[in-house]
Amino acid sequence: MNPIPILHWTKRFAIGHADLDAEHRHLVELINRIGFAIKVEPEQLPDLLEALHQLAAAHILHENAIMLEISSGTHEHCRMLMAPLMKKIVIRMFVRHAIEHDAMRDALNAIISGPVDQLCDGLKSWFIKHARSGDAELRALFHAAA
Fold first, then answer.
1. Is 50 helix (H, G, I), strand (E, B) or coil?
2. CA distances from 56 to 2, 53, 110, 144 (A)
């Protein structure tokens, strides 16, 4: 039995940063493995949820570090964008993004702690919200710098 994946990776999830995009792909893979485990290998679920939790935490730290590099003008791909006004805008964006990451962590914890029958839909919504909305500003920066 090979259940239908919860999520399919698309270019819409890419933000234009190879490492962050690879982490996004890995999050999608783990979410799909969790969906499979719920139906076929429930004994794998605790380990997969822990792996997802750890990957999400590392991803958030990585995004925050990149946002800090961008806002300080030290990120190699975004130096040219850092005129004084742009720097103020990026710093505000970074603060908002960091706050959103706190909410993202809380939402993931609530989904993982919730009922198993709501896990797949919750994880799918959580990832899509992050990749499409939460990272929209980062995507715009990386595309402008490309």
1. helix
2. 25, 5, 14, 26
Residue 107's pLDDT band (boundaries 50, 70, 90)? Answer: very high
- Closest listed residue to residue 112, CA positions, set 38, 60, 41: 38
Q: What's the rounded Cα separation, in Å, for the pair 54 and 138?
A: 22
Q: What is the pTM of this model?
A: 0.81
Mean pLDDT to the nearest integer, 59-77: 78
**What tokens appear for 67 in the block?**
């946002």
Average pLDDT along the chain: 84
Instruction: Give yes or no for residue 99 having a pLDDT over 80.
Output: yes
Q: What φ, ψ does residue 34 adopt, rounded to 5°?
A: -65, -45
Exposure of 81 by Cβ count < 10 A (0-12 exposed, 13-18 middle, 19+ buried)?
middle
Domains along the sequence of the chain with CATH = 16-145 (1.20.120)
